[in-house]
């Protein structure tokens, strides 16, 4: 059954914004919906850029920092060889004592107190998954980026053993959506699996699969933890797990690969099951990068690419008419051109919302909003 919720104008609520990073340089948290908080909620991790990056291809030197939840005791853990503006170094907490991140093509794991490198073997790739599950993290290899066949891999952060989940060749054995024109599909070796995410119970994996350079070539892959049972379907924008049986994201295409008949529905928040069938529509108005609180009481997203001003809102689940405007800002070149996106993520207790926005025309800042 499809559930539809009405949409109304956001309420204006001033204040409650707190700056986490410094002035005079850009700072980054991580992916959208990847919390910068340690599992116990006591410590935040973030990146300081020693030079100003541009986009997701230009690596610049940086530093990995942590601070206490109350924003006291900021301390540098280690130097970073290369961070980017887009998702930073994809930093994520393995547990309260270890942080994993992606440093210019190489996976690193450091002690959260001393900054000591704990992963002594060299493991290369194109990027990490969004978050760990039971001391394991996922990473991706692209053609020419990483040692191994292009595909999805898992690293055990205790033993440092790696495991292949799916290669592009194995993925290609599963039929793609019938609506994709064959001439738009790239060679299998050039396909890219990215944005890998464990389901809440850790039994399944969802990932974005790019089989070509066009928007309609960005697909959704869902499989079991070992790579079996793979299904490939159309994908919602910035999709994330809602529960073990469904995912949420902003509607790009219907299940048949066509744009919604009512174009006003495009990029509204929807929920689909693991076969791509629609479960809920109009959960929020048109959005972009997505965050959801651990208790699923809140969603957060911003206005679409290239908008000015950028308007960032917090939505109570089931009541989009009670949306709270968190920030409204000029993107300058910082947001859309340099790709310091808002990338919302919630605290472990769901009472804070972390995000990025420009400090000024030159630098990107990182902030949190206290939810009451």
Automatic annotation (TrEMBL):
Disordered: region residues: 1-20
Family annotation (InterPro entries): 6-blade_b-propeller_TolB-like, WD40
One of the Pfam families matching this protein, by short name: PD40
Protein name, UniProt field: Oligogalacturonate lyase domain-containing protein
